Amino acid sequence: MSNLVAFNKAGLPALAAIATAIKTVASPASSAGSVILKMDKTGHWVFGADQTEVEADSKWAVNPFSFVHGWIAWGDGVVLGEKMVALTDPLPEMDGAPPNSARGWEKQVGFSLKCLTGEDKGLEARYTATSVGGKRGFEALASAFANQVSQDESKPVPVVLLKKEHYQHKSYGRIYTPVFEIVEFVSMDGPVEEEEEAPAPTRRRRAG
Asked: Residues 158-173: pLDDT tens digits?
């Protein structure tokens, strides 16, 4: 068994409580990771300051204790303010947006995850989203997690592939949106170790 998904559970609410909160927040209508994971405007999943491309078909375990929601305010490419709380807590009350914020306070959701396979194995990352597409991907994942915990609390960890969809915007052209494709649910002890694959060619960095 692997300890790759042995996330820290100290002081965190029970899985059942998390599932209940998720069903409320993600109905139709944490701890931060070491790097930021995001999908760029060209539909590529990248992480870190160097915008390293995620290895194709790598598997990632989502920390079931890391679902958060809250608010963020952006300036000119700079975060001016951010307040995130566990999904089991109410959205925090916020005062007026920071001066020079581009769009005021925006609702943000997120979670942490860890790579299980390939050359990024063991890498911890944080994903957050304010866009409609990003929040939809979050809600689909969170709802699937809540349903899983309701049926089998012994395997609460979603293992996902980082995928994408797209639609055509009349003004901005092709818009890519994130998809977290669940391949299985595993216990907090992790999945059975997979055989190591041959090293992949060095990946190129993407421009920020």
From this structure: 999 999 999 898 888 8
